[in-house]
Fold:
Amino acid sequence: MSEQILFVGVAAFVASVVSGFGGFGGSYILLIALTPIVGVKAVIPLIAVFAVCGNLSRLVIYRKHIAWKFAIQFTLASLPGVYLGARILAWIPERALLVLFALILLSAIPLRRYLKKVEFKPGLATVIGLGLIFGLISGTAAGAGMFVIAALSSVGMAGLTLLGTDAAIGMVNAVSRVGAYISLGLLNKELILAGLLMGATTVPGTWLASRAVEKMGDRAHGRVIEILILGGGLWMLYTAIFVPEAV
Structure:
């Protein structure tokens, strides 16, 4: 039991560093690490509680760098997209969905570079469009956090501003998921407590990640984000083409 507790603590800390640095990826680490221990049904609600803590930590640490207006507009625009995304999920084949998501991610990199070259400034229509696309994706797939990072990156956000704004958007999403799981009886007191204890690791983890991002600078961090987005897009294409379960 003590070995399991230590393992979970280490996994939570690593997940918090990864999410604090790149804005996404921590949930995948916990999904892999915790599923054999708590089971499939418990792991998703547990990660949602952890996500609340993680986003709260990033909100506090990156509070001076958050583009609040963008975050609010983006989040509001995503809400109708969630419903539409859920409807799309009911009829679109999984393979086609993965290919579509992969193309969206991969297109974000050249789009980011082009918009930076022309010194594009996102207006309300751009924010609403990006928010709606994110809502569509979050309504059809898990791990939509990478699409938020891709969207923010494509309009020129980088470094601490990108991570802080992503945290503001992610906080609303995580809180809404926790509320839904509680109402459905999927989160009990024990799981909430476990999620909060795991969430305590997000404070040092996010702080450590923020120091690394500050030292790297926006340009270097932007390149790392591009690599992460490229990896996510290629992984989705690989899954759609070569993994039979994706049919």
User: Anything to note?
Assistant: The longest helix spans residues 202-242. Residues 2-246 form one domain. The two ends are 39 Å apart (CA to CA). The chain has a mean pLDDT of 78.
